[in-house]
Amino acid sequence: MPLNQENILIVDDDIKILELLTRRLKEFNYHVFKAISVREALFILKDTPMDLLITDIQMPEVDGIQLLKYANERYPKMPKLVVTGYPSVDGALEVLKSGAMDYLTKPFTKAELKIAVEKALEQGRKHQASIVSVPSRAKNQQFNEMVGDSTTFNQVLSIIDRVKDNRATVLIQGESGTGKELVARSIHYSGKYGKGPFIAVNCGAIPDNLQEAELFGYTKGAFTGADQDRNGFFQAASGGTLFLDEIGTACLDVQTKLLRALQEKEITKVGSRTLEKVDLRIVAATNMDLLEEIKKKNFREDLYYRLTVVEIKVPPLRKRKSDIPLLVDRFLQKYGMEYRDRLLRIDSEALKILERYPWPGNIRELENVVQRAVIMADGSIGIKDLPDFLKYEIDFPEEEFIPLKDMEKKYIKRVLLYTNGNKSKAAEILQISRKTLRDKLD
Ligand SMILES: Nc1ncnc2c1ncn2[C@@H]1O[C@H](COP(=O)(O)OP(=O)(O)OP(=O)(O)O)[C@@H](O)[C@H]1O
Ligand SMILES: [Mg+2]
Description:
Rossmann fold; Helicase, Ruva Protein, domain 3; elongated; 4 domains; alpha/beta; 5-stranded parallel beta sheet; binds magnesium ion; binds adenosine-5'-triphosphate
């Protein structure tokens, strides 16, 4: 059974046909959505990208032709298949004019249905391939690149799994280098909206006075230099995900507009009064303590609550040290193949040092250290290939504080261990005289 099921939306006011089509298409392993009216179909289309639309023509209220016209405008890439009981010449003409690729007359056999659906999907795939989906496919693999097996990391994965197929706004919090952006990409590319665009915007990198125009777009003449209408990131991310990185640095004006966009699902370009509907998911990330920023009046409380429909706290690496060997393995693979054309190993002492270090720069810092070691190493990676600051790292439990005197003792022991008991060398590293060292040892 293929894992990547395609989404098919069936629209028919006749429940029996709807059920029959659903049953058949499920047999063929497609993922089926049903709508008994055009209204309902529009509602579903708004939230779920479809690989194929199958619709009846004759329906009360709004008919299938109208739906096809709308769908051709909004979703030109989505293939459409018409199922009709009245194959009149006029009807067929209208259907062709409205852009439907094929049609099937009732009654039809199972085989006829299968062929028509496969053909339509194939057309759709060709169309997609010639347009944009190539870069997104490549990035898609990043989800599989997320490694970790600690309990805290698995909790993150399970939230990703729960939110990936809906459009709830997500706020990702975590220290620098913990993998917030990777989490955001995973939510997007692993979920139902993964075929839409993923647009990442680093709010901290845009000067305050340009943030609004960059995000929401502007109209010609809105300000000096605005010589034409321009769409912003919101429009660019339509149908997909807008990733607002470092949201804590968004200026207050923009925060107000963001709140509106989240509440009303509408935006206005700078210089315009026209409301434009936007249809996307917002994922925001921050390494700041937003509650603290709220207290300082730097961040709007109401926006905070809008953003945290779902909250993901990415734990710092020192709180999931059991992931370190897996991560090291992954980076050895990645950089071994990249720089050395083979897989390098790491010896157990070197790995122990990596496991012990508290990694204030989190996964990014670990990745850099492994990358550097791969470049330096002659054979397998040993302590000598690690940067100096790691070699002198002292092992003491997280957030357990000890008197300075004891700390000094521990540290001196550690340095002596490193120098194999050579006191002159140890004194040199500690930048104290040999006499002082001797005194301390006594
Ligand atoms: N679970 C993971 N498995 C493998 N690699 C990871 C994982 N998490 C993060 N990384 C890698 O670590 C690096 C930092 O991740 P990312 O850029 O997502 O962090 P960040 O939290 O956005 O950092 P910053 O706050 O500095 O922007 C990236 O190279 C990413 O590929
Ligand atoms: Mg980041």
